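Sample A.
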Amino acid sequence: MPDRPEQDNATQPFLPYGKQEICDADVKAVVEALCSGWLTTGPRVSEFEKAFANWCGAKQGVAVNSGTAALHAAMRAIQLKPGDEVIVPAITFAASANAAVYEGGVPVFADVEPDTLLIDTVSVARKITPKTRAIVAVDYAGQPADYDALHALAKERGIAVIADACHAPGAVYKGRKAGTLADISCFSFHPVKHLTTCEGGMALTGNADIAAHMRRFRNHGIDSDHRSRESSGTHAYDMRELGYNYRLPDVQCALGLAQLARLSGWVAARQRIAGLYGQALAGMTQVASLKTHNDRTHAYHLYVVKLAEGIDRDQVFAKLRGEGIGANVHYAPVHLHSFYRQRGYGPGMAPIAESVSRRLLTLPMFPAMTSADVHRVVAALNKAAAQAKQD
């Protein structure tokens, strides 16, 4: 990328690590939902479920109020029991593991590939025991895990494969889209994700019985909702199991439907920005981009880099923030959080994750970024990394 005159960063806007776009069409869709008479459990819920499932190529969609709720619904749908083990990568957001704990399950942390931070299938194979009930494959930063290898490990043992695809709408693995790669695939619609419903999520599956179970689970375990009882002219319902209120309201589904029309363009924009980052970082010795496997298409929820050994990541982070650049870190290993340490987890369980996590840095990535924004980030990163190494 060519050199450009430096500008005073105090006069430049703050660049967050992620940012959602809201336009007039989104506002119009939300207002129409507000005026429709259905604020929740109405027609827009099923419309959004079908539209997003179709976009991903999946048969069934179950809308819920967060990606975490989608993961929890998946754990209930596979009938996880107390004491059952769930293998999870050590580098992920805590919800990937917490969802198993909600059902009394025991997270078992697998290590990650050092160059992609995806779950390491060799580590997974070593962690499988007779108690293993599920493998959670996290599509870290937007790149799919190695699902063929995971299914090969899981199928003969009766283990479920759950995709934490919260980073990955639009990603592709060996010609197959995220949302179709696991027994259940879970997505998030948080504001920094590819599309937003403010808060929200969805679980996709090809199994109609699993979908029905998750729809019941999101509604207190009740076998019908207000709209279905209204249309059938009945008042009776049955709570078949203990569930939760994980419903996603019509108003938020209306926003999701409006955003979905622009999702393909946003994925393409993220891929373009990642290409600019890759070109600009190619010659830097103190910073390296993560690897993308040749058989996969990356959706780039995040753009994560690894700092070279000897560079103080926290110093670089602080210097970038001081330059108005919203760097972030994704993630500290889950098993090293206080909650898990208090339950017997600790250092040494995932050596690669523990080592590489200290060198990770997330750079700004959102569709409205320009080439000038990328140049600004890389110039500041280069300067900060050089200074942090000297210090």
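Sample B.
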Amino acid sequence: MSPVGFAPLDYVIVSVYLIGVTVAGILISGRQRSSRDYFLGGKEMSWWSVGFSIVASETSTLTFISIPGLAFKGNLFFMQLVAGYFIGRLIVSLVFIPAYYRGDLETAYDFIGKRFGLPLRKYTSTVFIITRVLASGVRLFATAIPVHLITGFGYPACILLIGGFTLVYTYLGGLKAVVAMDVVQLFIYLGGAVAAMALILHRLPNGWSDVVAFATSNGQDKFAFINGHTGTSLASFLMAPYTLLGGLLGGTFLTMASHGTDQMLVQRLLACRTRWDSQRALMLDATFILLQFGFFLVLGLCLYAFYGGASFQELGLSTSDEVFPKFIVENLPTGLAGLVVAGVLASAMGTLSSSISSLASSTYLDLFKFTARGRSLDERGEIRWSRIFTLIWGVLLIGGAMLFTDTKHPVVELGLKIASLTYGGLLGTFFLGLFFKRTIQVDATIGFACGLLAMLAILTFTKVDFTWHTLIGSGVTVLVGNASCFLRERMGPP
């Protein structure tokens, strides 16, 4: 039985939107003649569309669902991490993008291959693929939460519904379809969120004054966005979530890794016409992301006031991720509820399509292209194999999302923890290639492996907060890589 508030008209809107997005994505993409067209849009993508596409790809459903929930149950400390996000994007724009555009690169790991050799390119690309499958599974599952609440379908059925439509236009349309639909979906789901906030403020007797009153009641300050906690020891400091230093450094290093080494986002930056266009796209993303996270956190405070300061447990929910979906299906008027939910689904399709495209491009361009079969392909063969890998990864991602049935923790944090496992090693390897000219392939390989092992140990045996993971992993990689270089040079040739 469907929740009260989701009428037949809403189901029609959702159905029409899913079909419309899929068809439009295919039509807009045009004809692809080679893998370069399919995976990079022929390197002719406009900077503004790439910028908005990055916003939609990296935050869509996780932002829509989890971020309001974080403020609902806590405060605005997450903004410290967002400030680090902005700094990290600025560094990527000034340091990484110029390095990428000095060569005609096809993937993020193409840089590693040109600097350290093909084996390490394949190694880092494989690690990215494994991590992206897991992280994307979390993202897809996050989208299944509101669909589950709305329809009453089980999580597997919801995941199949979203994944099936997404795979169709990604398979047929390539990156052009992905980017074009990302731009549309971004403004659809943001428009829906703005409408939801306006409705909440309208229904509160005193509007914004009630939000302030509830956020500051009982001695609490849910508007607090700076956490000066230092702990009683180094261990307690590193374990504390969302501290000022942890947020700024964690957000900076996490963003340098995600936007500088993750093929899902770098693929778009490489699709721009020029280096300057790529930099403009990333800074558009940086500015927009700052405003977007702030908005969704404030939306969480509005929801807290709307529900009278009740906890998510008191509302009968299992996690704070379910608060906003609950409001959507129970309180939005007919038509608007369908449009908002369609926006959630569509934004998720953009994120999922980005993951599928990046996995397929990395598999084809970093791994398969250098095999005997890959080297002998004509343009028609390139398109055929590009689509084969797109289909394979689409199916695997849909299956991977079925593994995430634990809803006890905010999904956004789970996704960041998975990414942090390998982001540090990847970022450290790029640092070795960019800033340490004497390091060679063996040094980078040893450093990368030690960075991954260090992160595995930290995740297994410690409670260090995820905001520190990328910094620690990259630091270990750089230190070990340089130590290997030093010892190799001291020992001399065998």
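B remarks: The CA atoms of residues 168 and 209 lie 47 Å apart. The chain has 19 helices and no strands.
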